[in-house]
Amino acid sequence: MEDFANKASETGFAASKFLTPAEASLVREHFKHNRTDLSFDGGFGGAERVRAVFTNPDWGGFDRHDLFFVLRLKYRNTLTHRDILGALMALGISRDTIGDIVCEPQSAVFVCLPELGGYIAENLTKAGRVGVSVSEIGLDELPDNQENLTIKTDTVASLRLDAVLCAAFGLPRSKAAQLISAGRVNVDHQPCLQPAKDLSEGALLSARGLGRVKLLEIGGESRKGRIFVSLGVYER
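Now predict its structure.
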């Protein structure tokens, strides 16, 4: 990432391959005081896997079409995300060259590095035993990668991690503390061993074996001094 930042300083623009949410979080934290501008783009609105884009503001902007090649697959049978990803990996492609894959009824859309687009279009003919047809589409045809959340409202004694975790997954306080101390809980994609860590709106929590939840909204206090919260639980 330092090499990309240095390249952007010298040439105006540089971008990483696709990063996982945890990797993007680390990059964001590392470069928060850097002179080079840093943004993240995954092609889709709400993309999970994104490219870190370094730019030198003195050089102007960049063209998003230089970041992504967009492909649509069509097929008659039902295919899952795993089926399509497996077919792509079978072409000898590494995971960090492919962004999000959004499956629709009898079709799927995904983004990849521009230099791989032609290769995939020519060589991807099957996913498992299912035949697929591949075509290039424009960035403006990408659907939003919407988060599938079940909204849950509750009250918590405080905005501590352990308290919000209990509300999110219906856990006793002792169980939440156990999970945190065992390193099984992440906050914004990073491990957190602090039960007393205060959370803010937008915080993303994941507990291994239980799932993920986002703290969507922090409301006022009840008559008993408890805090109203709105939580978005991800479908598993």
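The chain has three domains: 2-65, 68-141, 149-234.
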